[in-house]
Amino acid sequence: MTEPVIAVRGLTKSFGSLEVLKGIDLDLMPGEVLGVIGPSGSGKSTLIRCLNMMEIPTSGRFTFRGQEVTSRFRGKGARIGTGELRREVGMVFQHFNLFPHLSVLDNITKGPRLVRGQSRAEAEALALDLLAQVGLADKARAYPSHLSGGQKQRVAIARALAMKPVVLLLDEVTSALDPELVGEVLAVIRRLAEGGMTMVLVTHEMGFAADIASRVLFMEQGRIAEQGSADDILRNPRSDRLRGFLSRFHG
Amino acid sequence: MYNWDFFTVMQSFDLFLIGVWTTFLYTVGSIVLGVIIGLAACFARLSRFAALRILSRSYQELFRCTPLLVQILWAYYALPMLLGVSISNTTAGLLTLSLYVGSFYSEIFRGGINAIDKGQREAAAAVGMSGVQSMTHIILPQAIKKMLPAFINQSVIQVKNTSLLYAISVAELTYMTSVVNSETYRPLEAYTLAAVMYFVMLFPLTQIADHFERRMRRSD
Ligand SMILES: Nc1ncnc2c1ncn2[C@@H]1O[C@H](COP(=O)(O)OP(=O)(O)O)[C@@H](O)[C@H]1O
Ligand SMILES: [Mg+2]
Prior knowledge:
The complex is a heterodimer of chains A (251) and B (220). Chain A is α/β, with parallel strands linked by helices and 251 residues long. Chain A has helices at residues 44-50, 82-88, 104-115, 120-133, 149-161, 179-194, 206-212, 230-235, 240-250; strands spanning 6-15, 18-28, 33-37, 59-64, 67-68, 89-92, 167-171, 198-202, 215-220, 223-228. In chain A, a hairpin with a 2-residue loop joins strand 1 (6-15) and strand 2. Chain B is an all-alpha fold and 220 residues long. In chain B, helix 2 packs antiparallel against helix 3, helix 4 (68-83) packs across helix 5 and helix 6 packs antiparallel against helix 7 (131-161). Adenosine-5'-diphosphate binds at residues 15, 18, 20, 38, 40-46 of chain A.
């Protein structure tokens, strides 16, 4: 039996007195593309941010490849730290968060050089390779302010991939884009999925989720309300609430 | 009509030069020390330890909310009484100027750091950077650009503030001008010349601050 990459049991997260996640159980298997859908405010972002400890869970068990994770940067004993976790679990943000003072190339090589200790030559070779994969080989020397939204997000994906992560977390990565730029980003994600990348994908692009997700979670009020194959959840929704939610996206 | 006579005061030009040089030394010395103090106070205020935050806050308010002249006089005349040791006017002057400007710098630094979108810190953390790596490679390079105009403006004020050391007889430009005046009885020429010298030192600095401010607005 294969071991889950990430396993979560009874995970809760509160901001002050507001309980945002109310007991999440989740196993993320290698190669799986997990789609996460649900209404705004249901806790999707909080959940995905817990998976790389960007938010520290309030309670519950969280293991990465069987190892427990502490909330400290450095691990202790058998438990790994957030720094080690985040090397392996990449994240792409809705608003790109590229480093504006660095060129595209430096945006991508900063992490591998500082965190993985790669040489400049090694990191740049990998970065150029990744830029070619996302169709931006000619933008290596450009600065983020000169890129379109779609190009920025593809750079952000390349930046995350440069760390050679085991898992990639994507939180509504096309929501801030003009409609005509969504396709180029989705194409990159689709190719990653086909390449066997393990991903968690929070999205409102239901058609896309149906295409590439191997499993879909429907979140509501801090809980996983329903889950199953993309077909079951997106094409044959059982609960009224899920049907209601989906109907808003099919217009 | 007043009979201008710059020739007489010019004969004491060496005294002016001593004054300019001393003003320069106190300015540079207090700015260097002030940056170190300001950085320490800034990171103390951003720290997760409440005691450090309170300590830093108290320091800032103490020095920002009392007149510099009072601080200088207090450090020179009152502090030695408390400590039971004598303090030279050099030490008292440099220390006070540094602590004073440091309290303003620390807030300028903090403002610059806080002005950086929190997504930057998150993106740095997301690739596994430590807090220190994220601060030195991602946050500070962006924050320094933002805080530069305010930093230069505060430093311009600092040049002028060295003139308050006159009160404890430090041989900076204002004090040396008073020496020239008492030797020549030519206050109009002496103090006019001093004002011109301050202006010549400061005008380029304000131009630099303006330049950075314009450039920053363009890049936003
Ligand atoms: N840092 C935070 N502090 C306080 N409340 C937060 C914070 N982050 C999220 N929340 C709250 O948690 C709830 C879930 O938010 P989120 O996880 O962003 O939902 P979703 O991504 O599904 O829209 C919302 O009510 C939101 O206001
Ligand atoms: Mg969200």
